[in-house]
């Protein structure tokens, strides 16, 4: 990152591309070019009006008729990954080279997985095999050697599904037979490549890209975003993110701002405010608290009813057990771990598939204990930061703390937590936190079902107050 800043400071002005000049001096001179986008591709993937507007702006930026930066403020569940994957397919059809970047491997892989759902496989992923989605491994070039050692380590993981085991075994055989070298040559010709900002210095990526798509751009500090921009000198960039969700993790006074944040005041972002994820009882809460009523519900979410018989979509499991512990600057609650496992057991008896359930918490230690105690490998357990961008039909949110909680001072993190569930959101929460004014404001005018955790553990079924 330091090398990037040094490079920027010593680069002569006459070598700046239109993009770099715009980033630094905010100058832009439009040209008159015209490229006709492939309307068939746009229609095939059923984009809404705002998503189509993004596509058109990007095309105009590539034509140099508009500034070389497109900002997209996409709320939760607004189809950001879907939009980026369609944009990739369209740009590849127009012979542009596209680089997908983000600060995390999860964000990069999410866009590539969206390409796979469209049966589009003409892409490559560069990075550490240990950190990349198993689905993406067949399209990956390791940033170290041929990646065999990493693959053999991955094969030893206990919680792999049968499909993941087959993918890893096939990948080991591919690399043993020398197809890795072939893939290394092919990456130079690839129209679409995915990489984290930190790994964009990889020597395998020794050619230019016409456009860089930054996903979760509000989570990436500006100097990190500049690494691929300065290395590949693209014609334009697209920054997609939600300023109302998580900020960059690095909270240095001078480095905590994202490129998205700086450009937000200079460019009018395109707002994707139609959300396709959360049922209205959940989306209405965050619309009131975070989005000033701008959020709209897509028609499909009105059919996303509670999966729990006789219960509302939001279910509060309350307790007054004081068993909060701290370890390595994190916290955990053994009582809430018992409650979470009991809820999972009941959901299993209700024949709800385990891969439709997610368990999240604000604290790493709680997630570590939860992951080791839950016997069903298909259930995703993660911190809220790690779960950003993901979604499940049912989310169990373990609050852990029984006193003042730091998450109450982090409304953006709580926004992420509230917007992961499609059908049902469980709070496992101590009474002292439940009655905190901030939590009460969340539940204001909401239809909520309540369960006593002690009764839940005794009865082994949902008994609502």
Automatic annotation (TrEMBL):
GO cellular component annotations, sorted alphabetically? cytosol; P granule
Molecular function, one GO term: helicase activity
Q: Which CDD domains match?
A: SF1_C_Upf1
Question: Do you know which SUPFAM superfamilies this protein is assigned to?
Answer: P-loop containing nucleoside triphosphate hydrolases
* Domain of life of the organism encoding this protein: Eukaryota
What InterPro entries does the entry give?
DNA2/NAM7-like (IPR045055), DNA2/NAM7-like_C (IPR041679), DNA2/NAM7_AAA_11 (IPR041677), P-loop_NTPase (IPR027417), SF1_C_Upf1 (IPR047187)
Tell me the ranges covered by the DNA2/NAM7 helicase-like C-terminal domain, including all copies: 255-430
Name all DNA2/NAM7 helicase helicase domain ranges.
46-146, 172-252
What are the recorded Gene Ontology BP terms?
Answer: regulatory ncRNA-mediated post-transcriptional gene silencing
Q: Which PANTHER family does this entry report, sorted A to Z?
A: DNA2/NAM7 HELICASE FAMILY, HELICASE MOV-10
Name-wise, this protein is: Uncharacterized protein
């Amino acid at each position: 990152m330091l090398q990037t800043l040094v490079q920027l400071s010593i680069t002569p002005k006459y070598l700046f591309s239109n993009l770099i000049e715009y980033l630094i001096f905010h100058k832009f001179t439009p040209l008159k070019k015209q490229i006709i986008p492939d309307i068939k591709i746009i229609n095939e993937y059923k984009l809404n009006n705002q998503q189509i507007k993004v596509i058109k702006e990007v095309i105009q930026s590539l034509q140099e008729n508009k500034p070389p930066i497109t900002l997209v403020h996409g709320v939760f569940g607004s189809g950001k990954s879907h939009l980026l994957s369609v944009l990739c397919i369209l740009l590849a059809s127009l012979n542009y080279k596209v680089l997908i970047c983000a600060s995390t491997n999860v964000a990069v892989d999410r866009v590539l997985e969206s390409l796979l759902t469209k049966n589009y496989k003409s892409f490559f992923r560069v990075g550490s095999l240990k950190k990349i989605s198993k689905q993406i491994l067949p399209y990956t070039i390791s940033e170290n050697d041929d990646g065999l050692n990493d693959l053999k380590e991955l094969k030893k993981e206990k919680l792999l599904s049968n499909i993941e085991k087959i993918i890893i075994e096939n990948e080991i055989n591919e690399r043993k037979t020398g197809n890795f070298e072939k893939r290394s040559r092919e990456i130079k010709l690839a129209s679409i490549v995915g990489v984290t900002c930190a790994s964009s210095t990889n020597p395998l990526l020794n050619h230019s890209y016409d456009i860089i798509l930054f996903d979760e751009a509000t989570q990436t500090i500006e100097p990190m975003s500049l690494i691929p921009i300065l290395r590949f000198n693209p014609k334009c960039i697209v920054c997609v993110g939600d300023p109302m969700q998580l900020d960059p993790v690095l909270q240095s006074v001078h480095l905590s701002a994202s490129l998205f944040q700086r450009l937000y005041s200079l460019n009018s972002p395109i707002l994707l405010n139609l959300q396709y994820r959360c049922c209205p009882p959940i989306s209405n809460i965050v619309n009131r608290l975070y989005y000033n009523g701008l959020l709209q519900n897509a028609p499909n979410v009105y059919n996303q009813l509670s999966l729990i018989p006789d219960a509302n979509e939001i279910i509060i499991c309350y307790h007054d057990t004081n068993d909060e512990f701290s370890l390595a600057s994190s916290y955990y609650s053994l009582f809430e771990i018992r409650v979470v496992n009991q809820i999972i057991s009941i959901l299993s008896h209700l024949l709800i598939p385990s891969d439709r359930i997610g368990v999240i918490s604000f604290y790493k230690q709680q997630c570590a204990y939860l992951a080791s105690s839950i016997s069903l490998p298909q259930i995703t357990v993660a911190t809220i930061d790690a779960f950003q961008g993901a979604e499940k039909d049912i989310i169990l949110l373990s609050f852990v703390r029984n006193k003042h909680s730091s998450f109450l001072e982090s409304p953006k993190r709580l926004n992420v937590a509230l917007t992961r569930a499609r059908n049902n959101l469980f709070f496992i929460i101590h009474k002292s936190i439940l009655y905190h004014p901030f939590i009460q404001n969340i539940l204001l005018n909401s239809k909520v079902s309540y369960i006593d955790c002690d009764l839940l553990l005794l009865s082994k079924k949902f008994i609502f107050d």
